[in-house]
């Protein structure tokens, strides 16, 4: 008797879903300024205004919103650039723990993402960002007491292997190319093992891996030769490693991608799974169909402009060469985005298909038919889908490149100046000068953050 | 339902994790892709036991002169100014990994395990690793170059000057041999311990081996080594 009302329970639910979807989309559109605020912080950092960047990021990371995790990662880079490596290490360690503890899928957020967009999903850093968290932890440790640097370098290497295995299991194509090891991780392991003076075999393996990944990193050939048959340094000498985080790293912006065959195939499989599930509790009349969609909104990689090309090193007033690129973070990001793109598009297609099915069902239950039903479906579906946004959350304060330089120096005190130069070799500023103490047979590390024309030293 | 579809498309991640303590009699876990505790621990135990079983009991007086290294440090010989009487000093140089696998965090643990087991034998006393490292830094000698008599002497002198006379140098080497057969492979792990008497140049060498099979499926073990017995071709 109660089920005989004019609008049935099913139709009430369908209409409620559509209404809720439009409402959530409105809320989502209202939050669209947040990524811009992250951009403001990143621009301030690149311009050298660390305090302004820190203020914004502290605000953003304080709220438990959908960009707070990205803001916390950026804040750790600010702490490192401010000469507080211990604080940066603590922040990154906390983020590593939080990210590792994320559930495999969060059903509530996934459900919300059907009604809105990928921004409703829990922020999960890209694979290369997860490796970079561990790598930057190692860099933080090298900037301070070096106590856990080797553990972090090991964790970075292990995480890389896990990601490659997971990608292979998911059937991602060209796994070896897309998830190739990040050279900085084995390189750090190599320099740390070499400094033990007894684990040259480990160092040689690590350097060999670096060479395989980045054969154009010229210094690694000397590293391999030294680890295979030489010694860490000549008697009476120590080694200075300059680790430079150079340039502005890649960020994501919203773009449009055509629906590819691969993406439609994945979406089709997902929708088939939905249909088989629907057939158990429905008559299949309103089964979700693969819609005819030409393009969807997706994240697009953008490299903010920065004029710095490398860091020139001056030791005790004498030019001592410059840092060389070991890891191209922008390339890692491009590879990751490219590998994930079919899944990103497929999610958008499934979301669109689900929305269209729900709008159709709502229209039918409202008693609409013929042209009025088509107009309702078109209008509601367009409004609902047009508010979708691509997920552009990322760790935007990573450098464009990680560069290194190895300099063997006599034991004692030396004055080291790091000067940012552009790709014509022109100095962009005076850079930073620091006195360092070289110990016989030991490594010393100087970590520089140089997003553009200014250089910040991380060492405390 | 749609949630389920989106979950299918979601990239996986580690999720929650739990830990528990193992009792002493719990089995070591067998690594699925590389040697693990179940491989390394018995290899160390067996090779060290074999080595200690073959080495002579070397309780002898120890001394060193102002130049650092004693002139009277041959095993069992008399000395003119003994400072201490005790077991032979063993300098464990390190582990060289020549296997097909990266040992990651296991290498340092194996060093400590071997070091502790040698140290627990009555007839030997292991030189502190920090002393060994300091001598390597001072001499800038590579561990693999200490096989040469001149380098060995220079290294022993450096340790002697630190007040740590040495009787034996010990090296550990890990090697592996891999046999592939379609989707299954066998890897043999060999841990070799080599002890060189620094005074006489005599060498004692012992090793232990563990063979391990890797398969893409659980039935691979039974197919090759169980009821299928296909391993021999």
Sheet with the most strands, sense and barrel status of chain B: 5 strands, mixed
Q: Which residue ranges of chain A are poorly predicted, with pLDDT under 50 across at least 5 consecutive positions?
A: 1-7, 25-35
Radius of gyration of chain B, in Å, reads 23 Å
Based on CA atoms alone, the radius of gyration of chain A comes out at 26 Å
Into which percent range does the helicity of residues of chain B fall? 25-40%
- Number of H- or I-type helical stretches of chain A: 15
Query: What structural class do you assign from the helix and strand content of chain B?
Result: alpha/beta
Describe the protein in words.
The complex is a heterodimer of chains A (460) and B (233). By secondary structure, chain A is of the alpha+beta class. Helix content of chain A is 52%, strand content 18%. Chain A has a single domain (2-235, 258-302, 328-392), classed as Tetratricopeptide repeat domain (Serine Threonine Protein Phosphatase 5, Tetratricopeptide repeat, Alpha Horseshoe), CATH 1.25.40. Chain A contains 15 helices and 11 strands. Chain A has a 5-stranded mixed sheet with strand order 6-7-1-10-11. Chain A has a 4-stranded antiparallel sheet with strand order 5-4-8-9, with no helix packed on it. Chain B is α/β, with parallel strands linked by helices and 233 residues long. Chain B has 6 helices and 7 strands, in the order ααβββαβααβββα. Chain B has a 5-stranded mixed sheet with strand order 4-3-5-6-7. The chains are: A alpha+beta (460), B alpha/beta (233). The interface between A and B is large, with 54 and 37 residues. Chain B: Pfam families: LpoB (PF13036). Chain B: It comes from Stieleria marina.
